[in-house]
Amino acid sequence: MHDLQNQFLDDRHSMTVVDADASAAAGPVVSAFDVAVLWLIAAVLVLSLFSLCFILHLCFKSRTSRHLRHFNSLWTVRSLLVLFIALWSLSELLRLPLLRRRLFLHRHHQALLCKLHVALSLGFLEPAFLVTLLFLVDVSVKKDFINGLSSVTASVFSTCSPLLLLQILVLFFSSPRLELLGLPYYFWSASYSVESSGDASTVLCSYPLLSTAVFGSFGVGYSVTFLFSAWRVVSMVINKALRVRIHGLVLTVLVSLPVQVVLLVLSVLWSPGEPAFDGVSLAVFLSKFACAVAGEGILVIKPIADSLIVWRQFCTCPWDPWRRPPAETVALEDGRV
Question: CATH for 31-190+198-331?
Answer without folding.
Answer: 1.20.1070
